[in-house]
Amino acid sequence: MSSIKDVAKAANVSTATVSRVLAKHPHVRPALRERVLAAVAQLEYRPNLIARNLRSQQSKTLGLIVSDIRNPFFTAVSRAVEDTAYAHGYNLLLCNTDENPEKELLYLQLMGAEQVAGVIFSPTLQTLNRWHELHLSFPTVLIDRSLRSGDVDAVLLDNLSAGSLLAQHLLSQGYRRIGAIFGEASTTGRERQRGFEAALHDAGLSIQPEYVRFVRPQSEAGYHTTLELLGLPEPPQVIFTSNSLLTAGALQAIREQGLHIPAQIGLVGFDDTAWASLVQPAITVLAQPTDEIGRSATELLLQRVADPQRPTRKIILQGELIVRESSVEQRGRT
């Protein structure tokens, strides 16, 4: 592996000059800069970022720990985080936990070992419940999941209002038997469930426990749970899901049963994925402002890095109901 001394020797310059070129110092002659960069390319030199951070006492790397990168919500948020970090001169270290508390702990330890400037994190309920035992050495901003008691920056969707808004839409379309599938791994699913039930309560309807399920927030769970709901003696008239992976699983189950949407059963969910508007019929969703979530979380983290003593902030964003054909009113529903 080439060293900075090897680059300096190949370019016939000092190691200090190589460092200035790599740091994009403005006061380096163009010809000299080109010579150094040519040597860097020829030797395939990769700078030791950790050593550089130790010398400058300031890391230029941020961490992002998401619970499931297959979830389009986290994919979109990750892109917004990376774009914002890059615009501010930071690199991004991305880790995926699969909603596994052990992997969360492992990656938090990794972030500490890599001496990142700070971390954006979507933790499981288990990790949130032991948050004060973690003693993290870096600033943290939570996304998608909230810590009820704790002094931590966060960017969140108003999940109570979002769950209520989606349920109110179904009630306005005449649905009464609503099968609801919520993620069990985080605070998010519980909050959306409370909003869902509040809307039913406000409409004078009682909760029907046999129609409400908590599962792992993955497409396989959405598929199998929807099959169970459809197999009830009196199946639901519509399926409500709390994330896009559950929606995809529910859609697969409905189609395998040969049911027509929305004539025989309705379907709604969270997150406006690319496929939600392309399938026939298109799916009604509660869209989250993923770009704003990622951008706000990154800017909040950088503010914390710049001023560790400033008061914590919790940014609450609103979702948008996008009504499509999958939940429109159907006459003659039983």
Automatic annotation (TrEMBL):
| Pfam families associated with the record | LacI (PF00356), Peripla_BP_3 (PF13377)
Q: Which SUPFAM superfamilies match?
A: lambda repressor-like DNA-binding domains, Periplasmic binding protein-like I
Q: Which residues form the HTH lacI-type domain?
A: 2-56
Give the signal peptide as a residue range, or say none if absent: none
- CDD domains membership: HTH_LacI, PBP1_EndR-like
MF term (GO), any: DNA-binding transcription factor activity
The UniProt entry, under InterPro entries, shows:
HTH_LacI, LacI/GalR-like_sensor, Lambda_DNA-bd_dom_sf, Peripla_BP_I
Keywords noted in UniProt: DNA-binding, Transcription, Transcription regulation
Q: What is this protein called?
A: LacI family transcriptional regulator
Q: Which organism is it from?
A: Herpetosiphon geysericola
